[in-house]
Amino acid sequence: MHETVLLVGGGGREHAIARALADSDAELYGCAGTRNPGIAALAAGFETLDTTTPQAVVAYAEGVDATLAVVGPEAPLQAGVADALAESGVFPFGPKADAARIETDKAYQRRFMREHDIPGCPEFATFDVMERACEHIDDSDGDLVVKPAGLTGGKGVRVIGEQLTPAEAKEYLRESKYDRVVLEERLVGEEFTVQAFVADGDVRTTPAVQDHKRAYEGDEGPNTGGMGSYSAATRELPFMTEADYDAAVSIIEETVDALDDYTGVLYGQFMLTADGPTVVEFNARFGDPEAMNTLPVLDTDFLDVLTAARDGHSLPELAFDERATVCKYAVPAGYPENPDAGAKVGIDSESAGDALLFYASVDERDDGVYTTTSRAFAVVGLAESIEEAEQIAADALDAADTDGLRVREDIGTADLVESRIGHMAELRGHEG
Ligand code: AMP
Ligand code: GLY
């Protein structure tokens, strides 16, 4: 059957979703707060609207006779866009607001794990009164992480001992005036992401990806939405064993068993510690940038996953092109703290050469595409090895005019991957 798919969201992640659907038997429509020229080029129509207003999304879905919808970002999920689409008869691939709390309420997320005895939950405590949280910091040995319970675009977490002192953490709690925070054990290890397609209790997992949240080379500077990411030609990453990957998959499967009727992507972010994977967080959607690593190597038709989820069929087993990927984001100078908007984006899919180009937050004007204050675009290299994939991504950026933009050169380089391997070997107490 011919499908009409509405894609909600306009970032790099959604451009990757649009690309994954472009060769399917589907007519695509996009909507987002800003126009993504990459999605618009692949779609039959693109509407600028507020994606956190469920009625606006439903009106557009009905207007284009959508038979399916994919909700990319977390904010519309929290706003109840999946609920509203389902009510109007358009199947949403993405959880309803209540189920999305696994991402949108970190206090709930931790309590859920504890209540259901899901392995890999760090020690934690939740606080509604910030002075109580400050006392908890005073009473602890200081190895704590401060997490606002609500959504912060990946920028609200502070790691004591890495990013700030206990005294600064208390100041942060008093000044930011969050309604609720989680204080939890600081995990030490290497982070990785595993994303799973979920429907009717079926879980289909994708290869592990490592994102880089810190703004600058060498994992320095403030947290960002993610500066880039890599994946290997195998399911696991070079610093992990297959058993580590399988342990992460088991945690996701146990979580899906405990969740009531979850549909969409469940994203597990893990810290691989000396004792195995521990959950940093769950997200209720694809990762951004991780979707740009995963979807280009997915050989299974993504539309088949969506229709199986809608029609109550078992989800197809996933096949992957066994290639490594490296994704690098170009962000405005000064991002994330003092970003400068308005630089001309000097790249297009032709000049990107062998790399894939995904647009994120850009402003398309008559005379070209300009940056906003968020991540502008990403390039993705695909190859036999991570090192070759990195070279492809780096070549694309070299060929582009990146005045006024910044990238993390180190993502996916052999040196960086070696340092991850060395770090894990050291934590596990043996030579790499
Ligand atoms: P989040 O917004 O939950 O993705 O957290 C942002 C970043 O904070 C993560 O990518 C980790 O690097 C770090 N982080 C979060 N929780 C912990 C933890 N319990 N231990 C160490 N680092 C953490
Ligand atoms: N890559 C981090 C996120 O999507 O939340």
Automatic annotation (TrEMBL):
Name its GO BP terms in alphabetical order: 'de novo' IMP biosynthetic process; purine nucleobase biosynthetic process
Q: Which SUPFAM superfamilies match?
A: Glutathione synthetase ATP-binding domain-like, PreATP-grasp domain, Rudiment single hybrid motif
| UniProt xrefs under SMART domains | GARS_A (SM01209), GARS_C (SM01210)
Under InterPro entries, the record lists: ATP-grasp, ATP_grasp_subdomain_1, PreATP-grasp_dom_sf, PRibGlycinamid_synth_ATP-grasp, PRibGlycinamide_synth, PRibGlycinamide_synth_C-dom, PRibGlycinamide_synth_C_sf, PRibGlycinamide_synth_CS
Q: Which reaction does it catalyse?
A: 5-phospho-beta-D-ribosylamine + glycine + ATP = N(1)-(5-phospho-beta-D-ribosyl)glycinamide + ADP + phosphate + H(+)
Q: Which GO terms describe its molecular function?
A: ATP binding; metal ion binding; phosphoribosylamine-glycine ligase activity
| Enzyme class (EC, first level) | ligase
User: Which pathway is recorded for this entry?
Assistant: Purine metabolism; IMP biosynthesis via de novo pathway; N(1)-(5-phospho-D-ribosyl)glycinamide from 5-phospho-alpha-D-ribose 1-diphosphate: step 2/2
State the similarity comment: Belongs to the GARS family.
State the NCBIfam families in the record.
Answer: purD (TIGR00877)
Which HAMAP family does the UniProt record give?
A: GARS
Q: What is this protein called?
A: Phosphoribosylamine--glycine ligase
Q: Which species?
A: Halococcus thailandensis JCM 13552
Q: Which gene encodes it?
A: purD
